[in-house]
Design brief:
Elements lengths: L6 E2 L1 E2 L9 E4 L5 E4 L5 E2 L1 E7 L5 E8 L16 E9 L2 E8 L3 E7 L10 E2 L6 E7 L5 E7 L2 E2 L5 E2 L2 E8 L4 E2 L4 E4 L8 E8 L2 E8 L7 E7 L7 E2 L6 E2 L7 E10 L6 E9 L12 E11 L2 E3 L5 E2 L17 E2 L7 E5 L10 E7 L7 H4 L3 E5 L5 E7 L1 H4 L4 E9 L2 E9 L25 E10 L2 E11 L4 E7 L3 E7 L5 E8 L5 H4 L6 E7 L3 E11 L5
This protein binds (Z)-L-Arabinonhydroximo-1,4-lactone.
(Z)-L-Arabinonhydroximo-1,4-lactone binds next to strand 8, strand 12, strand 19 and strand 24.
Family: Belongs to the glycosyl hydrolase 43 family.
Keywords: Glycosidase, Hydrolase
Protein name: Xylosidase
Length: 533
C-alpha cells in the first residue's frame, strides 16, 4: 500500500475512546476524557506525564445518580466531553443526549466526580468551556438547527454564551459564532486562547470518512472569527491511509511554542470507505506555531509508520451497555492461572428474569473493548454444570442489532450440522446418556440473524468458545475437552463497522447469557496476537 506524505501519529489509547478532550494539570502532566455513549461505567479518565503515555485512572460516571443509564439505546447517552482545570477544580462538561447538557466537577481527576449540574437552557451537543482571564466563563457548543424560546429558528453552527458554572445558568442569549467552512456538521468546538487572541477549533464533515478539523481566530471571544487559510488543519479523507476519519481535536500548551494536540480516528483494513470496526481511538501529535497559526507540516496522519501504535499497555476493562442489566455480573481474576501477566477472569452472569436474546434483541452483556485487530477472545463453560440458562456465549458486539456470537444452548438446534467430530460421537461414548447441547456461531446483521455453523455435543465436558479477531473479521470456533478445535466459520468484521452498523461506538468482546439462572464463565481471556496495525 502506498502511504502518502504523512506523519505518524501516536495512538494514546486503544479500543473505542472517541472525542478526546485534554487539559493540563496544575502540577504538570495531563488529563484526558472520552465519550462513552450508553456504556457504564462511563466517561473514562486518563492521566499522562508526557502527553504520549497515558494510563486510565478512573471514570467520571460511576453511579446511577450521574447517569440514568437503564433506557439507553445504541449510541445514546454520553457524547463529546470537554475537560478543563480552573482554580483548584476540574470541570467536565458533556452531553447526555437522552437528557441534556451537564457539568461535573472533581478535585482529583481519578474521582469521585460530582453529581450533574444540569444546563437546561443550552440545547445542542458537544459543549465546551473556556475560562477567560477576566473571570468570564464561556460555553460553546454545536447546534444542528432548532427553534429558540422566542420561536426563532437557530441555524446550524457553533454557538457561544456566558455561563455560571456553579449553577448551570446560561447568562446571555447565545450567539452563533461560526458556521464552519463547508456547513457540513461543524461540531466538537473548543475555544482556546493564545496571548490576546481567541481561537476556535472544531470538527467538520461528519465523523465518518469526510471528517476534518478546522481552526479560526478572533481578538474577541464572540468574533468575528478569521478562518485559517490552511484549513482543514487535519484530514485523511479520500486517502488509502490505514487511519481514517481523523478530527475532533483538543489541545494543551496552547500558549506555548510546542502545543499538544489530540484527535481521534479509526483503524481500518485496506478498504475504502473506512471499514474499521474497533471504533474511534485517540492519537496525539505536537505542533509548533508560525505567524499565529499552527504549523502542521501535513494534514494527514497515519498510525503505522512509527510502528509504536500498538505498543500500548493492554487494558482489559469490563463495561456494559447501560440497560437494566447493569450489576448482573461478578467479575473476578481467575486464580488458577500461573502466568500473572495474562488477564484472565472468571465471570458469573445472573440471567434471572432476562428474556432477551442477544443475537436478536440485545441482552445482558459484559465486555472489554477490542483493542487490537488481531486478537483472541475466549471463555470456557461447562454446559451441564455452569450453564443453567437457555443460552450462554461470547460475542463481538457492535450494537444490539450487529453482533457476532459463539454460544451454547440446551437441545439440538434445528439447523445444527451433524457433528462428526463432536465429543459425544468420539471414543465410542454413548451420546444418548448425556443431555444434548448445541454450540453455534451466529451473526445478527441489521437485525437479521444467520447461523454460520454449529456442532452438537453433550453437556458433561467443558467447552471453550472462541472468537479469533483478524484484519478481515472474526473466525468462530469451539474447543472441546479433548483439545480438538472445531471451526464454525468466518464472519466479515465489516458487519460491525460503523459504515454498516451505524452509530459512534466500536467493538466490545464479551460474555452474555439469557434465560434463567447463573452462568459461570471461567478462563475469560482477551489476548492481543500481534502488533500489526
Ligand atoms: C460527537 C461529535 C463527533 O458528538 O461524534 O466526531 C459525535 N465527532 O462531535 C459522537 O461521538
Amino acid at each position: 500500500m502506498t502511504l502518502f506524505n504523512c506523519k505518524p501519529a501516536k495512538r494514546i489509547a486503544s479500543g473505542f475512546h472517541p472525542d478526546p478532550s485534554i487539559c493540563e494539570k496544575p502540577d504538570g502532566g495531563y488529563v484526558m476524557v472520552n465519550s462513552s455513549f450508553e456504556f457504564m461505567p462511563g466517561l473514562p479518565v486518563f492521566e499522562s506525564e508526557d502527553g504520549e503515555h497515558w494510563t486510565k485512572v478512573g471514570h467520571a460516571l460511576s453511579r446511577p445518580s450521574q447517569f440514568p443509564y437503564e433506557s439507553m439505546g445504541n449510541s445514546q447517552g454520553i457524547y463529546a466531553p470537554t475537560i478543563r482545570y480552573h482554580d483548584g477544580l476540574y470541570y467536565l462538561i458533556v452531553t447526555n443526549v437522552n437528557v441534556g447538557n451537564m457539568l461535573l466537577t472533581a478535585s482529583d481527576p481519578s474521582g469521585e466526580w460530582s453529581d450533574p449540574i444540569w444546563i437546561p437552557d443550552w440545547p445542542g451537543i458537544d459543549p465546551s468551556l473556556f475560562f477567560d482571564d477576566d473571570g468570564t466563563v464561556y460555553i460553546c457548543g454545536n447546534e444542528s438547527g432548532c427553534v429558540d424560546e422566542d420561536g426563532n429558528h437557530e441555524e446550524a453552527g457553533i454557538y457561544l454564551s456566558r455561563l455560571d458554572v456553579t449553577t448551570g445558568e446560561v447568562l446571555d442569549k447565545r450567539k452563533r459564532i461560526c458556521g464552519g467552512i463547508t456547513g457540513s456538521n461543524p461540531e466538537g468546538p473548543h475555544m482556546l486562547k493564545r496571548g490576546d487572541m481567541y481561537y476556535l477549533m472544531w470538527a467538520e464533515g461528519g465523523t465518518e470518512s469526510g471528517h476534518m478539523e478546522n481552526i479560526a481566530r478572533s481578538n474577541k471571544a464572540d468574533g468575528p472569527y478569521e478562518m485559517y487559510s490552511g484549513n482543514p488543519l487535519i484530514t485523511n479523507r479520500s486517502t488509502h491511509l490505514t487511519l481514517q476519519a481523523i478530527g475532533h481535536c483538543d489541545c494543551a500548551h496552547f500558549e506555548d511554542e510546542r502545543t499538544l494536540m489530540v484527535f481521534h480516528g479509526t483503524r481500518n483494513n485496506d478498504e475504502y470507505p473506512a471499514q474499521g470496526w474497533i471504533g474511534r481511538e485517540p492519537y496525539a501529535v505536537w505542533f509548533t506555531w508560525k505567524d499565529g497559526w499552527p504549523q502542521l507540516a501535513d494534514q494527514s496522519y497515519d498510525c503505522t509508520l512509527n510502528g509504536n501504535g500498538d505498543a500500548l499497555e493492554h487494558d482489559v476493562e469490563w463495561i456494559t451497555p447501560g440497560r437494566d442489566d447493569y450489576g448482573r455480573y461478578s467479575v473476578s481474576p481467575n486464580q488458577g492461572v500461573a502466568d500473572s501477566d495474562e488477564s484472565v477472569f472468571d465471570i458469573e452472569v445472573s440471567a434471572s428474569g432476562n428474556d432477551f436474546d442477544l443475537p436478536n434483541d440485545g441482552a445482558p452483556l459484559i465486555g472489554t473493548r477490542q483493542t487490537d485487530m488481531d486478537c483472541l477472545f475466549e471463555a470456557a463453560v461447562v454446559p451441564g454444570v455452569s450453564c443453567e440458562t437457555a443460552v450462554a456465549g461470547i460475542a463481538a458486539y457492535g450494537n444490539d442489532k450487529h453482533v457476532i456470537t459463539v454460544s451454547i444452548e440446551r437441545g439440538a438446534a434445528k439447523d445444527s450440522e451433524s457433528a462428526e467430530n463432536a465429543p459425544n460421537k468420539q471414543g465410542g461414548k454413548d451420546s444418548t446418556s448425556a443431555e444434548q447441547y448445541t454450540v453455534s456461531a451466529q451473526v445478527n446483521n441489521a437485525g437479521l440473524r444467520s447461523t454460520v455453523g454449529s456442532i452438537a455435543m453433550d453437556g458433561s465436558q467443558p467447552v471453550t468458545l472462541r472468537l479469533l479477531g483478524t484484519n478481515a473479521g472474526y473466525v468462530c470456533s469451539v474447543q472441546t475437552a479433548d483439545g480438538l478445535v472445531h471451526e464454525l466459520g468466518p464472519v466479515p468484521g465489516k458487519v460491525l463497522s460503523f459504515t454498516n452498523a451505524g452509530g459512534f461506538t466500536g467493538t466490545l468482546l464479551g460474555v452474555f447469557a439469557h434465560g434463567t439462572g447463573q452462568v459461570k464463565f471461567s478462563q475469560v481471556r482477551y489476548q492481543p496476537l500481534m502488533a500489526s496495525r
